[in-house]
Design a protein that fits this description.
Layout (H helix, E strand, L loop, with lengths): L1 E3 L12 H4 L6 E3 L3 H7 L9 E4 L13 H7 L6 E4 L1 E3 L5 E3 L20 H4 L19 H8 L5 E3 L6 H8 L7 E4 L3 H10 L4 E5 L3 H10 L6 E6 L7 H9 L4 E4 L10 H13 L4 E4 L9
Length: 289
């Protein structure tokens, strides 16, 4: 595994990084499953890993777009949570909502359109500004990211068998599958031998349910919620003793602050609690960390 990080000089406030940093690219290059496992193996000496929720976003760079992910990688190394959905003709495209209304200039359900029809759509950024960017297919994103990053796949009503079909070979060694149940986890584990799993482990009961599946700890990233909760400190210690990283998502909490300055203050509060991975809508704001 090679992680290449150029020296980037930024001037001014942290929240101005989008405009003030250079354009050199950073990357997380994963060549095989063993390197993927090593990337997510807990080690207290490792720096916090930043993940871009919905592919990350910046002004002019919409969520779930290749361009937003590419832009983020000019600022810092990151991996990306993305949201595949099926079109009417069963093409997988990146779209968080089941409708097009919020993020494009079209309306209605994604599943009511063919992929050719969706090619006409243009994406909006978080501020609602229409861009010239289009909805990418999952394959386009996967092929773009092969030597650049890691993808954490959410499941937006995709048949489990479809993910097995796509990730059953060795073409994509950089895949994490987020699961919503131990049943889904077991299904993938029995059929896929070179992906990692992001599993909700919020309580000791969740941990026990995970251990009962028989899935080994070296396939696990533990999603522990929106923050590191002091009352579960012993559980976090146990997970880490088994090489498991603790993952928090702040998109419904600190990311919702009104200004970048308020967000950065909130990010500092979360970092004090020492998570191993932070998922955020705004990965670029973590440049100084």
């Amino acid at each position: 595994m090679k992680i290449s990080i150029p020296v980037v000089l930024c001037i001014g406030m942290l929240f101005s990084v989008e405009y003030l940093c250079g354009q050199n690219s950073t990357s997380v290059q994963i060549g095989n499953f063993e390197e993927l496992q090593e990337y997510f193996r807990y080690d207290e000496s490792k720096a916090v890993i930043i993940s871009g929720h919905r592919g990350g976003m910046l002004p002019g760079y919409p969520e779930n777009s290749i361009e937003a992910m590419e832009k983020t990688l000019t600022i810092l190394p990151s991996f990306f949570e993305i949201d595949p959905r099926l079109t009417k003709d069963s093409v997988l495209v990146l779209m968080h909502d089941n409708t097009l209304d919020r993020t494009t200039n079209m309306k209605g359900k994604v599943s009511d359109y063919t992929y050719d029809e969706l090619k006409k759509a243009r994406l909006k950024d978080r501020q609602g500004n229409l861009t010239d960017l289009r909805i990418p297919t999952l394959k386009e994103a996967l092929d773009w990211g092969k030597d650049k990053t890691i993808f954490n796949m959410d499941n937006k009503e995709i048949p489990w068998s479809r993910y097995v079909e796509i990730f059953g070979g060795d073409e994509y060694p950089n895949i994490v599958l987020s699961v919503r149940s131990m049943e889904e986890l077991t299904y993938y584990y029995q059929r896929l031998d070179h992906v990692m799993f992001c599993v909700a482990i919020h309580t000791e009961e969740d941990l026990k349910a995970f251990e009962e599946t028989g899935v080994p700890f070296d396939r696990l990233i533990a999603y522990v919620g929106y923050t590191m909760d002091e009352k579960y400190s012993e559980m976090y210690k146990y997970l880490r003793s088994n090489g498991v990283m603790c993952f928090i998502s702040i998109h419904p909490t600190q990311d919702k602050k009104k200004t970048d300055l308020e967000r950065v203050k909130g990010y500092s509060e979360e970092l004090m609690k020492k998570p191993d991975i932070i998922e955020t809508d705004y990965p670029a704001l973590f440049i100084n960390y």
